[in-house]
Structure to design on (578 residues):
């Protein structure tokens, strides 16, 4: 009787441990599956368009005859919006991380942190909607342009969405700087600001770099808000006050209307591959920066 | 003239403060703005009736139900997988190449754009496994998207349980699994719960992954099985604010408000669980 109980227990334990091992490997399996399926559907486009035509072609006319699948306008669209958003969100995000980590009194700190968490929680479609209702008409009026649906509006909205990522990761990096660094600077007669500017910020620089990269990654991958407020014009933009269309928005807007197995369908999956690689590289750099900090 | 370092500090701190206000103030503004414009649309009928006249009248009931179904489906798939995966990483994984690869995969998964998850879901669940655009395909896609969030937060929670707890349990003759089950998991549970709620709230608000895997444009009925399409709140908000002309402004704000309340309630729950946990922590 006792022995049977023991073996039952052993079997149960065996099964649980195997389940844990398998679950541990799911992440790898999923990454591989994502890549395989994107490749399986996406590489077929290179039978009709060469890699060079696809990446550097200046015309994206997927449904005209003959169709043209050049994603350069989309890459530039993503690029403009991303650079714009980074220019706004990086300085403000880092400044606010420094304020929260080093300057704010404890109670204020808690309130500010929850405010930023709240921002991270708002769904992107809601932010896109608010952008459409408030920011877009505002941009149109202030800059006297025919439409407020521009790369600039998208950049402002996306900057806002990247900030929670930048602030929280940069704040972690600042908190991870050993206190004695700051104390030593203060003991030598530096003001608090001098200690922050010359010692703490420098010691946290690689963590802050990771925060910036992850924020940018968030911007590149953002879909709904961008689709709602950048105007969706798939042509090469000449200024940030023109409508653009990003890589993500193209997939989201066009996939619904394609036929499975058509060239258009393959081309959208190929854009997915491009996005997958861009974010992969960004995350790799961020991970590298984070690990350098630890050693 | 020599610069006064204290004046520099004053100016610097003022700039830092202004930057923070620049982020936090609009958040409050957005939320108040949505509540102010949206509450007029909220009525019993709006929450419980089918949409009518091409979504220009009636309620948003099927979209609310659809989102709840998707949230529930996401939970079923992502919670066990995410927690077991975190247990593997903290308790079983050896410090070798494979573990490094798993961690790299998780980091990479966390960065994949949501619309690429949508493509993946379309390729694998909708077409390859022939689930069609359905609750099942949508839930699986969302579950995979939130998996890295659940794994990372659960892993942090498990890591924060002191090593001595495990050693005491093992020294008393407990097996490895008994140790995890009775001495580690109970202490990590609040942290895990926080991560799970945050992950699920993310799933409730996402639009891009469900675009091609489940969301129906206009479907004024409730689903009968997990192989049917449903409407979902975030997609519905997108549709009525960009695709359908002449929808009343209040209806749009009302839909945004319902979605916002749903997502923020979940986040509030996570914050409460976490602060409760911090107070209880005894070591």
């Amino acid at each position: 009787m006792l022995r049977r109980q023991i073996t039952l227990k052993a079997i149960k334990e065996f099964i649980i441990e195997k389940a844990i091992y398998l679950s541990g490997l799911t992440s790898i399996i999923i990454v591989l599956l994502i890549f395989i399926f994107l490749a399986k559907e996406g590489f077929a486009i290179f039978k009709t368009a060469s890699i060079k035509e696809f990446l550097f072609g200046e015309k994206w006319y997927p449904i005209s005859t003959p169709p043209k699948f050049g994603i350069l306008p989309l890459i530039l669209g993503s690029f403009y919006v991303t650079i714009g958003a980074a220019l706004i969100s990086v300085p403000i995000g880092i400044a606010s991380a420094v304020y929260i980590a080093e300057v704010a009194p404890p109670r204020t700190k808690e309130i500010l942190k929850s405010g930023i968490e709240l921002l991270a929680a708002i769904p992107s479609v809601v932010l896109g909607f608010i952008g459409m209702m408030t920011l877009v008409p505002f941009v149109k009026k202030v800059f006297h342009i025919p439409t407020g649906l521009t790369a600039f509006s998208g950049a402002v909205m996306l900057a806002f969405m990247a900030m929670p990522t930048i602030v929280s990761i940069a704040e972690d990096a600042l908190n991870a700087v050993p206190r004695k660094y700051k104390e030593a600077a203060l003991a030598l007669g530096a003001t608090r600001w001098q200690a922050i500017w010359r010692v703490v910020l420098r010691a946290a620089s690689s963590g802050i770099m990771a925060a910036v990269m992850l924020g940018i990654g968030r911007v590149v991958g953002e879909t709904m808000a961008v689709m709602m407020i950048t105007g969706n014009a798939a042509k090469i933009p000449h200024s940030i006050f023109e409508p653009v269309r990003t890589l993500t928005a193209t997939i989201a807007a066009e996939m619904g209307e394609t036929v499975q197995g058509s060239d258009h369908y393959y081309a959208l999956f190929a854009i997915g591959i491009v996005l997958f690689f861009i974010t992969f590289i960004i995350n790799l750099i961020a991970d590298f920066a984070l690990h350098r900090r630890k050693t | 003239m020599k610069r006064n370092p204290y004046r520099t500090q004053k100016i610097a701190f003022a700039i830092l403060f202004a930057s923070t206000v620049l982020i936090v103030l609009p958040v409050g503004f957005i939320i108040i703005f949505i509540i102010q414009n949206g509450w007029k649309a909220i009525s019993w009928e709006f929450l419980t009736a089918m949409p009518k006249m091409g979504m220009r009248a009636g309620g948003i009931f099927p979209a609310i139900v659809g989102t709840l179904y998707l949230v529930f489906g996401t939970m079923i798939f992502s919670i066990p997988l995410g927690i077991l995966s975190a247990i593997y990483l903290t308790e079983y994984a050896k410090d070798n190449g494979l573990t490094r690869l798993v961690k790299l995969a998780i980091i990479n998964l966390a960065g994949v754009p949501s619309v690429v998850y949508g493509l993946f879901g379309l390729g694998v669940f909708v077409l390859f496994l022939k689930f069609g655009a359905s609750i099942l395909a949508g839930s699986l896609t969302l579950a995979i998207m939130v998996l890295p969030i659940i794994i990372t937060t659960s892993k942090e929670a498990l890591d924060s349980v002191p090593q001595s707890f495990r050693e005491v349990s093992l020294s008393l003759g407990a097996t490895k699994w008994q140790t995890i089950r009775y001495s580690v998991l109970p202490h990590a549970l609040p942290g895990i719960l926080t991560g799970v709620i945050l992950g699920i709230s993310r799933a409730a608000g996402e639009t891009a992954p469900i675009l091609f895997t489940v969301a129906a444009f206009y479907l004024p009925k409730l689903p009968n099985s997990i192989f049917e399409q449903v409407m979902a709140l975030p997609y519905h908000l997108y549709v009525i604010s960009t695709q359908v002309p002449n929808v009343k402004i209040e209806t749009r704000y009302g839909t945004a408000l319902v979605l916002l309340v749903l997502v923020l309630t979940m986040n509030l729950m996570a914050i409460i669980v976490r602060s409760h946990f911090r107070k209880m922590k005894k070591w």
Q: What stands out?
A: Residues 2-42 of chain A form the longest helix (41 residues). Strands of chain A lie at 60-61, 68-69. The two ends of chain A are 54 Å apart (CA to CA).
